[in-house]
Write a structure and sequence with these properties.
Strand order of the largest sheet: 2-1-3-4
Number of domains: 2
Shape: elongated
Number of helices: 8
Distance between the termini: 19 Å
Number of strands: 8
Radius of gyration: 18 Å
CATH class of the largest domain: Alpha Beta
CATH architecture of the largest domain: 3-Layer(aba) Sandwich
Length: about 240
C-alpha cells in the first residue's frame, strides 16, 4: 500500500438499519472514530458506507475513491460473517491500494461493555445470562461470539450461554428456555451483542427473557476497538 503521506481513505462500513436511533448511534460511532484518528495525527478522510438497507452502498463508495490513493474498509460489524467475507472482500478486491480491517470483535473490552449493559438491567444473584448475536453461518464468526461469551462469564461471575437471531443454533428463544431450566435460576437476562437498536434487537423481547439489555453503543469501548482494527490493518501500533 502507498505510504501514508498520501491521502488515506477510511471506509467505515456498517450493516444498515431502518431504526432512527440505530442510525444515529452508528453515525456517532463514525464521528468518534474520526475524532480518535485526528487525535493521533492520522490524516484520513472518513467515508460512510453500508452493505444492506441504507445508502450509499459499499461497492459504490469504493469504486468512487480517487485512483492511486490508499484505502481501508473498516467493518462496523461485530463478527466475521457473510458481509466481511463476501461483500467487503469483493469491494476490497475490486480496487488496488485497498485493504480490509477485521471485524470489531472478539475483544475483551466488548465483554466488559456487555457486563455494564447487564448491570443497567440489574444483574443479580441467581440470574442466568444469554448472549444474543444476530448470527452467521461462518464458523469463525460463531467462535468469535462464543469467545466474547466466555469473557463475559468471567466478568459476570456466572455461566453465560449464547443464542442466535438467525443462521445458527441455538436460537435466542431456545437458549433462554434452556437457561431458565437450570437449577437455581431466578431470572434470565439477555445481553445484546449488537451495536445498536434495529430489527434484531426488537426481536429479543419475544425470546421469553425477564430483561433484555441495551445494545453496545454508545459505549466508548466500541470506537476504541474500531480504531485498533484500523491501525492493525495499516501495520501501525495501536
Amino acid at each position: 500500500m502507498t505510504g501514508l503521506g498520501s491521502q488515506l481513505h477510511v471506509v467505515a462500513c456498517a450493516h444498515g438499519t431502518d431504526n432512527v436511533s440505530g442510525r444515529e448511534l452508528i453515525d456517532g460511532l463514525r464521528a468518534d472514530v474520526a475524532s480518535a484518528l485526528a487525535a493521533r495525527g492520522l490524516r484520513a478522510q472518513l467515508h460512510e458506507a453500508y452493505v444492506d438497507v441504507q445508502e450509499p452502498a459499499l461497492d459504490h463508495i469504493v469504486a468512487a475513491l480517487p485512483p492511486g490513493e490508499p484505502a481501508v474498509v473498516v467493518p462496523l460489524l461485530l463478527s466475521t460473517g457473510f458481509h466481511t467475507s463476501v461483500d467487503i472482500r469483493q469491494a476490497v478486491d475490486s480496487r488496488p491500494e485497498t485493504r480490509a480491517a477485521r471485524a470489531i470483535g472478539p475483544d475483551h473490552r466488548l465483554a466488559e461493555a456487555l457486563a455494564r449493559r447487564l448491570a443497567d438491567v440489574g444483574l443479580g444473584e441467581g440470574d442466568r445470562v444469554v448472549v444474543a448475536s444476530a448470527g452467521t453461518r461462518v464458523e469463525e464468526g460463531l467462535k468469535e461470539v462464543r469467545q466474547v461469551a466466555e469473557w463475559l462469564a468471567v466478568e459476570a461471575g456466572r455461566p453465560v450461554t449464547v443464542g442466535f437471531g438467525a443462521a445458527a443454533e441455538p436460537s435466542v428463544q431456545a437458549a433462554v428456555a434452556a437457561a431458565r431450566s437450570e437449577p437455581g435460576c431466578r431470572r434470565v437476562l439477555v445481553a445484546a451483542y449488537l451495536l445498536a437498536p434495529g430489527y434484531f434487537h426488537s426481536q429479543l423481547a419475544k425470546a421469553g427473557a425477564d430483561a433484555v439489555a441495551a445494545p453496545l453503543l454508545p459505549d466508548p469501548a466500541v470506537a476504541e476497538c474500531v480504531v485498533e482494527r484500523l491501525l492493525e490493518a495499516l501495520n501501525m501500533t495501536p
